[in-house]
Specification:
158 residues; alpha+beta; 3-stranded antiparallel sheet; two-stranded antiparallel sheet; 4 helices; 5 strands; 34% helix
Length: 158
């Protein structure tokens, strides 16, 4: 196990995600085909960085969001992250890199925080490795590294 991410232009990747999302909204729906092909080229370079990373690693473990689960609130309400308020819609931004690079990812239960809310761990693998990351999650569960699913307090199955 090693603490490491691929060597790539992370700011550029984040910008690309925002640009691609805006391209499917009215904000940028009139983009030229050349812009789209350039965006795909940038995405392919990001994918190449991940492919190089996964030559040395079976999977990447990381949090699925900026915080553990939070109590229900109105969508758009800023959320506390490390003592500061953060954008509600940026909360799951750590998932975007897997989507951008076509990487399979799953989130497994990893316990509960001091308020009893669930904590998860995201397992990301190289492209086309869905069965591998399922096996990794199963191995972590069998080794009791991950606790497995537990219904929340007060849950009733009717």
């Amino acid at each position: 196990m090693e603490e490491r991410l691929p060597s790539c232009d992370w700011d550029g990747a984040n910008l690309l995600v925002r640009e691609l999302i805006s391209a499917i909204t009215a904000e940028r729906c009139g983009e030229e085909l050349a812009w789209y092909f350039a965006a795909l080229d940038r995405r392919d370079r990001f994918i190449t960085a991940w492919e190089a990373f996964f030559r040395d690693f079976d999977a990447l473990l990381l949090p699925p969001s900026m915080t553990t689960a939070f109590p229900h609130c109105e969508p758009g309400t800023p959320l506390p992250v490390d003592g500061k308020l953060a954008d509600y819609f940026g909360h799951g931004a750590v998932l975007a890199m897997a989507n951008l690079a076509d990487l399979p990812a799953l989130v497994a239960p990893a316990g509960r925080d001091e308020d009893g809310l669930p904590i998860g761990v995201q397992i990301v693998g190289p492209r086309w490795s869905e069965m591998r990351i399922l096996a990794i999650a199963r191995a972590l569960l069998n080794a009791q590294v991950l606790p497995g699913f537990a219904p929340p307090p007060g849950y009733r199955q009717d």
